Amino acid sequence: MQVTFRQFAFNNVLRNKRIYAAYFLSSLFSVLVFFVYAIFAFHPGLTEVHPGVATGLHFAEAIIYIFSFIFVLISMSAFLHSRKKEFGLMVMLGMTNQQLRKMVFLENVLIGFVATIGGVGIGLVFAKLILMMAESVLELRAPLPFYMPWQAMLLTCVAFLLLFVVISFCTVWILKGNKLIDLIKGSAVPKKEPKASVLLSVLAALLLAVGYGVALSVKGEAVIFAMIPVTTIVIIGTYFLFTQLSVFIIHRLKNRKSLFWKKTNLVLFSDLSNRMKDNARTFFFVAIVSTVAFTAIGSLVGFRFMFTNSLVEERIFALEYYSASGNEQEIEHLQTITSELEGTPYTNASLQIKNVEIPSLATEYQPLTGIISESEFNALAKAGGQTEVQVELDGNEAVYYYFEHPVVDANREIEVENERTVDLIDTEIHQISTLGSTLIRTYDDYFIVDDQFFNEITEYERESYHVFHVSDWKATADIGMNLLNEFEVDETRGYGDNFYIQSLGHDWSVMNQSLGATLFIGLFIGAVFFVAAGSFLYFRLYADLESEQQKFAMINKIGLTEKELSKVLTIQLALLFFIPISVALIHGAVALTALKNMFDYSMLQSSVLVLGSFTLVQIIYFIFIRHNYIRRIKSYITN
Q1: Is the pLDDT of residue 470 over 60?
Q2: Amino acid 141: pLDDT
Q3: Is residue 142 scored above 80 in pLDDT?
Q4: Measured between alpha carbons, how far is 627 from 619 in angstroms, rounded to an integer?
Q5: What is the sign of the dihedral through the CA atoms of 417, 421, 427 and 429?
Q6: Longest CA–CA separation in the chain, Å
Q7: C-alpha span between 282 and 274 (Å, rounded)
Q8: How large is the average pLDDT for residues 183-207?
Q9: Reported pTM
Q10: What percent of the chain has pLDDT above 70?
Q11: Residue 432: which H helix or E strand, with range?
Q12: Are the C-beta atoms of residues 632 and 569 closer than 8 Å to each other?
């Protein structure tokens, strides 16, 4: 039966399915992630969460698309390099260079087409499950119903079919100009052992030390200005770390005869040194890509922790209602609040604030100072589980209360006078102590005075502050939304004419959804980067599988035991997998520490969570690859 050229290209893909498997699965994953983003970007219900979510998703798609192009192109280049000997044999058997390029073009288009259709198909099958997961991650109040994503399907198919066609033309260009002798030799051409420059090795260590030192020492806004130069220095240092310093270290270890000649170290170091040039480039790329993934996801998780925790630490009460002077709706609003809370266990407290003039500081604006009674402040503090006034007030004695943010002001000293005398219109206040907290969230400062002194003040502008404490404050999100709608105020601020209403449950829900959407976007981008990094390690490993099988088969003939073979291969694989990841983990930890210095907020929890998760995934991936790789080597030796 006559085989057409297209059938020959198709059969060739099947024969090389081991090499193409990683390339196909990685391409499939890129298409799948892009398609998932497109499903969300075009979903009519997700834009209600935040107007910028769809824009952010399309931006993420663009990043994934650009990175996928680079990733697929480099992957295909590695495949072509590993198949040079096969191409040389085809040319010797009569295949022309034009036919060879046509065959590779058809192979790549075929794989790209199947990966695109497969990615879209898998995305459709699991679309509803993915939408449900998004509802959980984003904590949406309204569900995301399944819909037929025609726009997402069209965009994904057109974008990736075009990408694979362009990549196919690029592969043809890569093959152009290869001589027959080069193809026949293939990857068996001996590689010269790279020479390490002592100067560049020292420079690598110096650049990394300077980059780390600056990143860890700068504080506040200085982190932004240091970001670009530090990143540049660390990238250059990382490149020289793998291309120069690592080679230099291996040479020094080889010169230590007691170590080099010990057991199987001869095989380990000789092989590692000979392959260092190729590995160095792979290590550098994997380290940088993994660092981007670690830092991006770690930052987003850290920001989510920071903002949500800051909100909860700042806000003590589930509902807060402030009424300024001249608010005629106060009684009606308070009745509405208690009506909405009916059936929900709560405790409430109120403050009456008397704003009086300070003649000694008078200007045309007539500055006022707020005065509150000791008993009402203590009742408010008790309702919120906060510190009450600890001193006994008598006569005109007062405690100066100031708003102290638990996160922003945690690591800085606030200068407040402990004792002073303030003149009012017809009397004076003698301040004897200070008290800072987030109890009264009007962000103003007040004097807490004895009840009798408070009642004697007759000339003032009246304000009031009402709070409602609910143990399960997250359950009051819908109550907060209802109150905002009934009071006809802006959802994000809660301010009306002469009053404001704020709900911790509602604000936390809105913030969590917005940050969750950002985290959702960044999570998949980071996942694509991390999968790409793992795929490059896989490609590097299996591109040299044939030569490794032949090498260990020869070494086995001179007495290498099965246990020693497993040990050497395990160490080689561990170096291949964990050297770049370890460098990336250090880079990521330094970057997240710099962000901590910028915001003056510890990101230890998010850093451990993200970096630990990536490390665990890498260990599982290593165990799987190690088992499969050693099995292939041993199978070749025994056969």
Answers
A1: yes
A2: 61
A3: no
A4: 12
A5: positive
A6: 113
A7: 14
A8: 69
A9: 0.70
A10: 72
A11: strand 428-437
A12: no
Pair of tokens at residue 592: 């997240």
Would strands 446-449 and 319-323 be described as parallel, antiparallel, or unpaired?
unpaired
Residues 526/226/236/199 CA torsion (nearest 10 deg)? -150
Cβ count within 10 A of residue 361: 11
**Both structure tokens of 310:** 């800051």
In whole angstroms, what is the distance from residue 500 CA to residue 575 CA?
60
Structure confidence at residue 556 (pLDDT): 74
Put the strands of the sheet holding 420-423 in their side by side order: 420-423, 428-437, 397-403, 446-449, 368-373, 347-357, 461-469, 319-323, 499-503, 495-496
Q: Over the chain, what is the mean pLDDT?
A: 77
Residues 409-435 as b/e (b if ≥16 CB within 10 A, e otherwise) read eeeeeeeeeeeeebebeeeebebbbbb
Mean pLDDT, residues 48-66 taken together: 67
Between CA 193 and CA 249 the distance in angstroms is 14
Residues of 481-516 as b/e, b for ≥16 C-beta within 10 angstroms?
bebbeebebeeeebebeebbbbbbbbbbbbbbbbbb
d(C-alpha 379, C-alpha 230), whole Å: 52
Query: Of residues 582 and 414, which shows the higher confidence score?
Result: 582
Pair of tokens at residue 542 = 């299996």
pLDDT tens for residues 476-505?
Answer: 888 988 888 888 877 666 777 788 898 898
Q: What is the mean pLDDT of residues 203-209?
A: 91
**Residue 8 in tokens:** 């020959």
Quick one: pLDDT at residue 465?
A: 92
Distance CA 155, CA 586 (A): 38
As a whole number of angstroms, the distance between CA 89 and CA 95 comes to: 9
Q: Which helix (H) or strand (E) holds 632?
A: helix 604-638
Give the Cα separation of 115 and 121 in Å (integer). Answer: 10
Residues 603, 623: Cα–Cα separation, whole Å: 30
User: Is 90 exceeded by the pLDDT of residue 221?
Assistant: no
The H-or-E segment that residue 123 falls in is helix 97-125
List pLDDT tens digits, range 310-347. 788 788 899 999 998 888 888 899 999 999 988 888 88
- HSE-up (13 A, CA, CB side) for residue 424: 23
* Inter-axis angle of helices 17-41 and 97-125, nearest 10: 50
* Rounded Cα distance, 454 and 434, in Å: 18
Q: Which of 69, 548, 550 is nearest to 279 (CA)?
A: 548
Please give the structure tokens belonging to residue 210. Answer: 């300077």
